[in-house]
Amino acid sequence: MKSLCVYCGSSIGRSSAYAHAAQRLAKVLVQGHIRLVYGGGNIGLMGIIADEVMRLGGEVTGVIPKALMEKEVGHHGLTRLLVVKDMHERKATMANLSDGFITMPGGIGTLEELFEIFTWSQLGFHDKPIGLLNVDGFYSGLINFIEHVVREGFLKPMQASLLMHDSDPETLVQKLKLAKPDSHEKLLDSSTAAKII
User: What does it catalyze (predicted)?
Assistant: First the structure.
């Protein structure tokens, strides 16, 4: 695993635990020689994890739409900053540059990124591991909801298992490293999926 995409908030949140978790995850990435790929911002948890990876001597690739760059939230102190035309290109670029995905606490945009990459896995667009960093129980309700979706027959247990979770950054990264491409039946074969995205 050479690179991980981290989805996280453009705010820092109320609890200092979120920033602390971002710094801990940054340390795990640098120690594992894993490049950070993220949304390219210099604010919120996005800025914290990018700053910490850079401070520790790691590599960071940011991907940001031109409109956000023009509003001066782009991070100019990264290893590499890619400015793209829109949010769709941003997410596709981040996915293509990454060997796996971790979602930290964040808002609606963070959840949208998580569920898109989760859906892409279910459909067969990729077989990269996906993790949820459940800092101080932030995602416990979501984890319970996904279990509810399984119980109600809208998601198969094997599909739900595509989303790994842990409260500890090091443990979660290790789970992603050890994950094997899932073998459950995809809704689309790889050639059809490639044509869609």
Answer: AMP + H2O = D-ribose 5-phosphate + adenine
